[in-house]
């Protein structure tokens, strides 16, 4: 395996009207590594993920996926999104489809996998995530943790090159948080490349190879968990971490 | 004229880019200047938008030319032109048709308002829970079943011709009032179903959230469920209103003179069908602004709420 980054961002800028949400953001994500984006709400974590998936059009800078510039207006955006899996904070499962249909939709319609094959993979993934008996259920019948695990399976079903996780535990109670984070940890073990925005500092410290602290749309500090949590260089980072510790979240 | 929507959107985005490129606006602490990369992208997008506009113009031109040649080249065109598109009859018919149209407009406004109120009440009656309300629910269901199924023209005949035949004291025999009543009866049934579908499409979690805040069932309906339901149902409601507008012409079976009947009178006299075309176009002209207005209102409401994003 080469060490060329899976995802690379250079001087990315994104503004909504007058509000600049990301400015001059650089990021490199090596294969089989986990990058955690931390920072207060509104610091630009989610926007950064949405830009990486081309759900938002960036104003300036560039983003590469496996060495191919995906922010070039000539790129096929659908083809890019086919290679990236996304799990949203609010699950965003399709309520009118069963769990199995939610998962097999993209493999069958987008990737041309046969129904039998898609369902087999879906069931296998569901089984692994402890949801083997819920394949025929509708999302609204599941608990939050179950829904989020289904959403993860849905993202994994297409064997993505990169997985983006946007505060996937923010809507879950602590017991269910553990359930979902275990899944992410297992995925890391299997070598999945992931970028996640999270408020779970303990989890970020355990699982992330690289931590980026965002503040006001700028990556203020980056490094390994020991560097960022153990020896933060910026006053802003120290203040943020102090508040987290005071809140008992680290 | 009909350039694809996303293309024109990109043009807008480009315009904004131009502005900030010319003079960096706002955010003094920022010191941001667009990179060469951004300028190149914008140039490309502008070029693409120009190309899209050119293609749209060309395709429109070709389509129009083909249509023109097909119609004008048809063997019966001179005859058709004389019978359906006669300028002299058009000029003669227009004032009468417009005079008749005033009746259609008044009927539309009055019946439209009545239909919306009655339809809403029936829809609410159908969604009420609790055993006490069973008769109300059953009545509302029976009403919609009956009037949605009954052909409008038969309903009109029963009301407009049947009610006067009863010779009841104090009940009007005015065909316009009776016709309006018949229209309201039928259309309330349609609109009630539209509202009901809207109410049921609001996710149960919304009602749960409202009830958890201590709102009563009625308050939850009034402040949380109905506003969302009505917003979603604006396009189908408009559909029914446009349909109602055209059906107001049917009151002429009782002898009232509306736009269609006014055209009918001239046609009967002259055996030239141009007045029908005039009446038809007048109806279309009345509908278009209404549709555009509701489109604009809903689009504006959506923009205020929706999460951003380029797809």
In terms of topology, how is this protein built?
The complex is a heterodimer of chains A (250) and B (311).
Chain A: E1 7-16, E2 19-29, E3 34-38, H1 45-52, E4 60-65, E5 68-69, H2 77-82, E6 84-87, H3 99-109, H4 115-128, H5 144-156, E7 162-166, H6 174-189, E8 194-197, H7 201-207, E9 210-215, E10 218-223, H8 225-230, H9 235-246
Parallel strand pairs in A: 3-8, 3-9, 6-7, 7-8
Antiparallel strand pairs in A: 1-2, 1-4, 4-5, 9-10
Helix pairs in contact in A: 3-4, 3-5, 5-6
Chain B: H1 5-22, H2 36-73, H3 77-84, H4 87-127, H5 134-149, H6 152-165, H7 175-201, H8 204-212, H9 217-232, H10 234-247, H11 259-270, H12 274-305
Would you give an account of this structure?
- The complex is a heterodimer of chains A (250) and B (311).
- Chain A has 250 residues and is of the alpha/beta class.
- Chain A has 2 domains: 1-83 and 161-250, P-loop containing nucleotide triphosphate hydrolases (Rossmann fold, 3-Layer(aba) Sandwich), CATH 3.40.50; 94-160, no CATH class.
- Chain A contains 9 helices and 10 strands.
- Chain A has helices at 45-52, 77-82, 99-109, 115-128, 144-156, 174-189, 201-207, 225-230, 235-246; strands at 7-16, 19-29, 34-38, 60-65, 68-69, 84-87, 162-166, 194-197, 210-215, 218-223.
- In chain A, the strands form 2 sheets. In chain A, strands 6-7-8-3-9-10 form a 6-stranded mixed sheet, with helices on both faces. In chain A, strands 2-1-4-5 form a 4-stranded antiparallel sheet, with helices on one face.
- In chain A, a hairpin with a 2-residue loop joins strand 4 and strand 5.
- In chain A, helix 3 packs across helix 4, helix 3 (99-109) runs parallel beside helix 5 (144-156) and helix 5 (144-156) packs parallel to helix 6.
- Chain A is globular.
- The model of chain A has no long low-confidence stretch (mean pLDDT 91).
- With 311 residues, chain B is an all-alpha fold.
- Among the domains of chain B are: 1-25 and 32-65; 101-250, MetI-like fold (Orthogonal Bundle), CATH 1.10.3720.
- Chain B is built from 12 helices and no strands.
- Chain B has helices spanning 5-22, 36-73, 77-84, 87-127, 134-149, 152-165, 175-201, 204-212, 217-232, 234-247, 259-270, 274-305.
- In chain B, helix 1 (5-22) packs antiparallel against helix 2, helix 4 (87-127) crosses helix 10 and helix 8 (204-212) packs antiparallel against helix 9 (217-232).
- Chain B is flat and about 85 Å long.
- Residues 1-28 of chain B have low confidence and may be disordered.
- Chain B: Residues 101-294 form the ABC transmembrane type-1 domain.
- Chain B: Its main location: membrane.
- Chain B: One of its GO terms (cellular component) is ATP-binding cassette (ABC) transporter complex.
- Chain B: The chain crosses the membrane at residues 52-71, 105-125, 146-166, 273-293.
- Chain B: Keywords: Amino-acid transport, Cell membrane, Membrane, Transmembrane, Transmembrane helix, Transport.
- Chain A: It comes from Streptomyces fuscichromogenes.
């Amino acid at each position: 395996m080469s060490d060329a980054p899976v995802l690379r961002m250079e001087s990315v800028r994104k503004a909504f009207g007058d509000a600049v949400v990301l400015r001059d953001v650089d990021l490199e994500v090596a294969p089989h590594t986990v990058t955690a984006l931390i920072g207060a709400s509104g610091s630009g974590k989610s926007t950064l993920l949405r830009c990486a998936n081309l759900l938002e059009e960036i104003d300036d800078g560039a983003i590469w996926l496996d060495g191919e510039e995906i922010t070039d207006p000539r790129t096929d955006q659908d083809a890019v999104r086919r290679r990236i899996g996304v799990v949203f904070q609010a699950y965003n499962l399709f309520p009118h489809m069963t769990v199995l249909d939610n998962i097999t939709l993209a493999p069958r319609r987008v990737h041309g996998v046969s129904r039998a094959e898609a369902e087999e993979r879906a069931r296998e993934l569901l089984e692994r995530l402890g949801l083997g008996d819920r394949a025929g259920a509708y999302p609204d019948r599941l608990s939050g943790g179950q829904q989020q695990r289904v959403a993860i399976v849905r993202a994994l079903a297409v064997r993505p090159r990169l997985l983006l996780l946007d505060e996937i535990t923010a809507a879950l109670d602590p017991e269910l948080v553990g359930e979902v984070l275990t899944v992410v940890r297992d995925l890391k073990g299997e070598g999945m490349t992931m970028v996640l925005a999270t408020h779970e500092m303990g989890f970020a410290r355990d699982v992330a190879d690289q931590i980026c602290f965002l503040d006001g749309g700028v990556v203020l500090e980056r490094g390994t968990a020991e560097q960022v949590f153990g020896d933060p260089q910026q006053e802003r980072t120290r203040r943020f971490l102090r508040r987290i510790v005071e809140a008992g979240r680290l | 004229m009909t350039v694809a929507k996303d293309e024109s959107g990109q043009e807008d985005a480009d315009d904004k880019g131009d502005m900030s490129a010319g003079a960096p606006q706002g955010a003094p602490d920022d010191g941001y200047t667009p990179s060469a990369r951004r300028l190149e992208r914008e140039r490309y997008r502008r070029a693409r938008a120009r190309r899209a506009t050119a293609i749209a113009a060309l395709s429109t031109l070709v389509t129009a030319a083909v249509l023109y040649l097909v119609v004008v080249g048809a063997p019966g065109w001179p005859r058709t032109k004389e019978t359906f598109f006669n300028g002299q009859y058009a000029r003669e018919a227009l004032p009468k048709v417009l005079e008749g149209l005033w009746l259609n407009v008044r009927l539309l406004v009055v019946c439209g308002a009545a239909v919306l109120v009655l339809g809403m009440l029936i829809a609410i009656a159908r969604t009420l829970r609790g055993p006490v309300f069973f008769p109300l629910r059953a009545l509302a269901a029976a009403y919609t079943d009956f009037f949605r199924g009954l052909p409008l023209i038969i309903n009109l005949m029963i009301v407009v011709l049947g009610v006067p035949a009863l010779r009841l004291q104090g009940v009007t025999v005015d065909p316009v009032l009776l016709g309006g009543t018949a229209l309201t009866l039928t259309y309330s049934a349609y609109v009630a179903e539209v509202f009901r579908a809207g109410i049921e499409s609001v996710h149960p979690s919304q009602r749960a959230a409202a009830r958890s805040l201590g709102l009563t069932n009625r308050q939850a309906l009034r402040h949380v469920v109905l506003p969302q339901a009505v917003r979603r149902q604006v396009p189908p409601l408009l559909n029914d209103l446009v349909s109602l507008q055209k059906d107001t012409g049917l009151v002429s079976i009782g002898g009232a003179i509306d736009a269609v009947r006014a055209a009918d009178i001239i046609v009967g006299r002259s055996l030239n069908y141009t007045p029908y075309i005039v009446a038809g176009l007048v109806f279309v002209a009345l509908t278009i602004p209404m549709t555009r207005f509701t489109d604009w209102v809903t689009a504006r409401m959506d923009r205020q709420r929706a999460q951003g994003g380029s797809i």
